[in-house]
Amino acid sequence: MKGCNKLVDVGRRQFLRGGAVATVGAVASAVVPSTSKAKPLPARVQYPSNRLANISELEVNEPLHISYPDEDSPGVLLKLGTPVDGGVGPDRDIVAFSTLCPHKGFPLVYVAEDKTLSCPGHYSLFDCEKGGLQIMGQATQNLPQFALRVDDKGDIYAEGVDELIYGRLSNVL
Amino acid sequence: MAFKRHIDRLPIIPADAKKHTVVCHYCIVGCGYHAYTWPVNKQGGTEPSQNAFGVDLSKQQPAETEAWYAPSMYNIVQQDGKDVHLVIKPDKGCVVNSGLGSARGARMAEMSYSRARATQQQRLTHPMVWRYGQMQPTSWEDALDLVARVTVAVIKDQGEDGLFVSVFDHGGAGGGYENTWGTGKLYFGAMKVKNIRIHNRPAYNSEVHASRDMGVYELNNCYEDAELCDTIVAVGCNPLETQTNYFLNHWIPNLRGTSLDKKREQLPDEEHAPGKIIIVDPRRTATIAACEAEAGKENVLHLPIEPGTDMVLFNAWLTYIAEKGWQDKDFIAASTKDFDKALAANKTTLAEAAKICGVPEADIEKAAQWIAAPKNGKRRRTMFAYEKGLIWGNDNYRTNAALVNVALATGNIGRPGGGCVRMGGHQEGYARPSHAHVGRPAAYVDKLLIEGKGGVHHIWGCDHYKTTLNAHQFKQVYKKRTDMVKDAMNAVPAGDRAAQVAAIVEAIKAGGLFAVDVDIVPTKIGEACHVWLPAATSGEMNLTSMNGERRMRLTERYMDPPGEAMPDCLIAARIANHMERVLREIGDDKYADQFKGFDWKTEEDAFMDGYHKVAKGGEHVTYERLRAMGTNGFQEPAVGFEGGKIVGTKRLYADGKFDTKDGKARFMEAKWRGLQAPGKKEQKAKFKYLINNGRTNLVWQNAYLDQDNEFVMDRFPYPFIEMNPEDMKELGVGPGDLVEIYNDDGSTQAMVYPAPSAKKGQTFMLFGYPTGVQGNVVNAGTNELIVPNYKQTWADIRPLSKAPDSVKHLSFKSPHYKVG
Question: B541-562 burial, b if ≥16 CB within 10 A, otherwise e?
Fold first, then answer.
């Protein structure tokens, strides 16, 4: 136990002396020289900030096909017409989702009548007004939603995803 | 907001990961999966050579790819004492599911015990006993000694009838051939326990007595028959939600017409068309919506009959088919008895049926045509499938018989595209010594417990508090009786075993009950118990079961059980060992000798002692042979072993010989007698709403694991009750509001879910849910064989609370698929 405490102490002193990045380098080179090239990677993937559209291009309850974080990951941008949790824009009603069904990757279809995305493959249904909650279906996760930001010009940017997108083991390839 | 995991990448399965055969341990379909495990400090890469799929994972993978898994399919668990990564993903090569995963099975990894990722921390890890006023961890030796001493004391005082047992009889998790044999050998071999019941009903009996009495085992076809038939008749079942991949992978191809090539290839001498489907259910289900989308409304006939009138409908079909001369005369003559007798007794006109069932005469006639009208001189192939709407419905024995009558009359058992089968709940996995001594009707165990009978209660993977009828009264009495024993135990030092046992026995004599709960998680009934024994589940042990087409597979052990948990079969063996020891101590060697033969060290020992020796064809089956047969296994019964493979049986009764002494199936009389179970008519007359009930897609069984899963509990913090919007208006309730459902038998709660397709006055509540138990309002009446009728329940409804915060983010939109 004493040894452990000492190591913690060493780490703490070095942290105070030189900052986190330098500390990791110093400890690594002291203990395992062969891994001295290791550098810390971010814990989560780095999402690009991609412009999807301008607010002026959106019409209420008319889906706009987009892709994010890259062109192989199709999605939908929606202006729902009523404010929702997680909605952006002046009316807090703009949302975007992946349109690959998180069950087996079939393309989802927007049903304007009740603002849902439905899967013709195995009949799963997701509620666009409730953060992509699976109403009923075979996916084991709710629908990946894209985090949106709207700038002063009304340009809508996607900047993140809250669930794993179907067909990729990393949201950013 | 909807629950999100915020997982944006997953560890990649390396090329050298260990691969284990897994069968989903939840529903009867038994989908094939593989469990991949590899050391926690290793990972695969995106290069084809670096991952188990041999593909470039830096690219987007297409729909239905094998090279993707959801976060729910991943975990970190222990294997041989070391942390390993675990991925459990559906197997494309399994003929049952062809790579499909359901919303239940595809969560198996996430539903595993993981200290590293804090999943299923509810699991029992050590034996627990009631000590100093609460449940406390103890050793196996200590817990088993207490169980054995109290059990022996009760038997010495009351005989074996003083030992009450509630025990699973199925396959999959909380069951399987190993564990039904272990418990069966204890209670039906070493002892002859009579006061015993099964997990979902209050007696030890078949749910489908009539079919068996007619010589027709209830799982008699193969899943492929759903692809080959001309018509599917689905009674009281909702397979999109409850036998999902059987429906998606075998029914839908027929309705879509994509199984036509298979029909033409296997049945070349007749006309073929895409399948039609008849669905008998008072409620419009998600299954019906999906069928209509695929087959077109013109090929889907929904008969929303008055609840509980199924028998009349089937009798009208039989009568009409015979009038038209569409019955299979050769088959009836060669393979059956009593057709004319049953036909005369069950005679029902279309007009009579229309009146009682509340559906148009023309629709009943159309259904009979879809079932039996010859196609250009050839016999129409029809598959009949039924489940709890019939099994747990009105007058179920006769209703079951009436449906099997139609299947027999049309020659649809034992032939391609036929079958008269239950859809099933759990998988099956029954291997036990004879239970003939239980008698028929079997003891109504819950009723006896309520009446104060019995001194000790052993419970195996059952939770009466959630899944029995008359649950309200049962819980009240059960708590009182077990509390008497708890109070007695509190009064004596825990370390003085002799004094403890004496105090317990005294409390039992005063009306108390000592309860032992063997389970994988703390249950609701467990709260009343005095000993908890932790069991291992599928994958933590090797486990064999068969699915709804009798397909037997071995799930290989891929992880350690939590803590000291053991397979049920070994727990049963250790109870037997301790009872033998205690009996010798008190000098009863003769009785002690009955507890010999439980020296199993592994679950494989139990399998070889049980299934291998006693099951039909069991001599051909070993773990080694099953391992070699992977997720496809073989269909029971085994008939040989050739070329390194177990040879199975695709369909039962293909030779026209049934399970009766003379080999002839029996037609059975089934006369309508209205609402049969005691108390039902009165309840219907007094209360306004039908409280129909059943399962939903997302939740497995009584949510024993789901209750600790955020994805599920976020969706359903409370059980839903589907209601017609007009009824909601009258009650002044909105979506998500909590309501009380109450009648003279009890009360419970549920969350309102609007259902525009529901008939006025007919609600549907999620069954067996921990935060609102539907069984509380089901009265105690059963049929003459003690099979309950959960479905025909009536109650009043009143508001309890406006939608609580925990449901405000939920969707209350229709779960029925519509074409976009």
Answer: bbbbbbbbbbbbbbbbbbbbbb
Using a CB-CB distance cutoff of 8 angstroms, which residues of chain B are in contact with residue A135?
Answer: 811, 813-815
pLDDT band at B442 (very low <50, low <70, confident <90, very high): very high
Q: pTM for this structure? A: 0.95
> What secondary structure does DSSP assign to chain A, as a single string?
-HHHHHHHHHHHHHHHHH-HHHHHHHHHHHH-GGGTT--PPPSS-----EEEEEGGG--BT--EEEE-SSTTSEEEEEE-SS--TT-BTTTT-EEEEE-B-TTT-PBPEEETTTTEEE-TTT--EEEGGGTTEEEESS-SSPPPBEEEEE-TT-EEEEEEESSPPTT-SBS--
- The pLDDT score that the predictor gives to residue A15 is 34
**Which helix (H) or strand (E) is B197 found in, with range?**
strand B196-197
Q: What is the mean pLDDT of residues B261-284?
A: 98
Residue B204 has pLDDT above 70, yes or no: yes
φ, ψ of residue B720 in degrees (nearest 5): -90, 155
**Structure tokens that stand for B484 in this block:** 């008497």
* Closest listed residue to residue B399, CA positions, set B283, B234, B235, B219: B235
Q: Is B2 on the interface with A (CB under 8 A)?
A: yes
Element (H, E) at B130: strand B128-131
Q: Are strands A94-98 and A74-79 parallel, antiparallel or unpaired?
A: antiparallel
Strand ordering across the sheet containing A109-111: A109-111, A116-118, A125-127, A133-136
Question: Which helix H or strand E contains B474, and what residues bound it?
Answer: helix B471-490
The token pair that represents A26 in the structure block: 């110093």
B8 chain-A contacts, CB cut-off 8 A: 44-45, 161, 164, 170-172
Respond yes or no on whether ipTM tops 0.90.
yes
Give B515's strand partners: B457
User: From the CA of A156, how many Å to the nearest CA of chain B?
Assistant: 21
Model confidence pLDDT, tens digit, residues A81-117: 999 999 999 999 999 999 999 999 999 999 999 999 9
User: How far is residue B386's CA from residue B237's CA, in Å, rounded to a whole number?
Assistant: 6
Q: What distance in Å separates the CA atoms of residue B762 and residue B751, rounded to the nearest whole number?
A: 15
How near does any CA of chain B get to the CA of A149, in Å? 18
A15 by Cβ neighbours in 10 Å (0-12 / 13-18 / 19+) ranks as middle
Three-state DSSP class for B258?
coil
Which one, of B473, B549, B519, lies nearest residue B707 by Cα?
Answer: B519
Is A138 close to B101, i.e. CB distance below 8 A? yes
The answer to whether the CB of B9 falls within 8 A of the CB of A171 is yes
CA–CA min distance A50, chain B (Å): 17
The radius of gyration of chain B from alpha carbons, rounded to an integer in Å, stands at: 26
CB contact under 8 A, A125 and B58: no
pLDDT band at A37 (very low <50, low <70, confident <90, very high): low
